[in-house]
Amino acid sequence: MDVKRIIASMALLTATLLVSPAISHAATPQAEPAAAQAEKKVKSPSAVVLENWNEIGNKIVAMAEDWPEEKYSYRPNDTVRTFAQVLLHIAGNNYDLVNHITGKKMGRADNDPSTDTFKTKAQIVEYLKKSFTDGADVIQAGGDAGTLKELGNWVGYIEHSGEHYGQLVVYYRNNKVTPPDSRKK
Prior knowledge:
mainly alpha, 6 helices, Four Helix Bundle (Hemerythrin (Met), subunit A), 185 residues, 0% strand
């Protein structure tokens, strides 16, 4: 585990602990109505990781579904991946993590699956969606203990997806298109 992931893991754990009701001395749970207690309920570590995993996954999947298939080969220059290659790279890395944690082979284990294997937008979108769904299933199956054991990896891979989300935003902007998440609701 590299220093960046350790720091990110510690920051996430610290944030989780800071919002813990055990730290709050404002009122005792017995003095509050049940509805107020339910509102103050803190999310578990696995719930926080799952929420972040799904949030970035949903943003990237929305882009994959939104982007026109004829532009899946777009790249800002010859030194970077095409739109399709970025999506496949994200999905491949998701499976790298899932396979590491489960010890099972799920999806393709390579970080950069080929566009020769995934030739259409529909194939790429399906593979990408499944990689995020399988990751979410692993988080849920592992619960807090499993998530905390691999916290550095989960945080690192969520960050990795976030970095590529930013990259894809540039692809949108270069084509004078507003990314789905930036459009008025």
